[in-house]
Amino acid sequence: MNSKFRKILITGSTSGLGRELSLSLKEKKEIYLICAGRNKAKLSYLKKKIKSNASFFNQNLNNISNIKNFISKLKKKSLMPDIVIHCMGGGLGLRKPILNYSNWNLLFKNNFLSGVEINNQLIRLKKRNKKLQIIHISGIASLLTGMGSIGLSSTKFMLIPYVSNMSKYSKKFNIKINCILPGGFMSSEGSFFRLKIKNNSGYKNYIYSKTLKKKLMKSIDIQKIIYDLIFKQNSNLNGYNLIVDYSKSVQNYKQER
Predict the structure, then answer these.
(1) What is the mean pLDDT of residues 234-251?
(2) What fold is seen in the domain 6-245?
(3) Distance (Å, rounded) from C-alpha 58 to C-alpha 109?
């Protein structure tokens, strides 16, 4: 691999934003993609579409031993990333307000802990002078009452203080960390794509009652923000939680102190 290539790791690359972002980035020059996902069939689809400058890892990253194994593989193959984009996560269909401990634990790992542990492993192994950029994807539902399931919105919310506080530590070591909080958006095999197929009336009800412009954003709207963060030479944002929604311009969410 050409040493000039920037290596980009995308977790959750097999569906939704992660999949569309992977397919979009393959068109960029001097980029080497590292696509991780737990669905073997969907990962095979990506392999057919991205035929060069990419590696694929069929890995469930929701337990510590798998994460360690994954990072070890990256190290052995000289694929330690320059940029990490965490698209992994979701509600796992657990929408009831009362969830048992096991289900809460699944959501906690899926939406917060697994991504954080991947960061920890990469930061420990990072060479002193090498830059590292980390982007988490949360959601505006984590901020607004009635916009998402309790389990999903609660576990996604944890990314906000994590990014804000981690950035104070990480900036000493050439590490930038930010989070994007999108409103509802349509993407291939994403949550709204699935909702439209399974419950079209529920999908329409969301559009007309929860969105300002009576329509969803598209995945490309989120990708534009990601592109600004990773490709703009003067992008020095660190510790930002960027709200991206039709109802307002891109802005940084700041917690009250």
Answers:
(1) 77
(2) Rossmann fold (3.40.50)
(3) 18
Backbone angles phi, psi at 228, to 5 degrees: -60, -40
pTM: 0.88
Q: In the predicted model, is pLDDT for residue 192 greater than 90?
A: no
> Residue 106 corresponds to which tokens in the numbers above?
């699944």
**Helix 16-25, helix 219-231: angle, nearest 10:** 50
Domain ranges, ordered by start, for the chain:
6-245
Give me Rg for the CA atoms of the chain.
Answer: 18
How far is Cα 195 from Cα 210, in angstroms, rounded to an integer?
Answer: 15
Angle between helices 200-210 and 191-198 (to 10 degrees): 120
Residue pLDDT, tens place only, 151-163: 888 999 999 999 9
Which strands sit side by side in the sheet containing 54-58, from one edge to the other? 54-58, 31-37, 6-11, 83-86, 132-137, 175-182, 241-245, 248-252
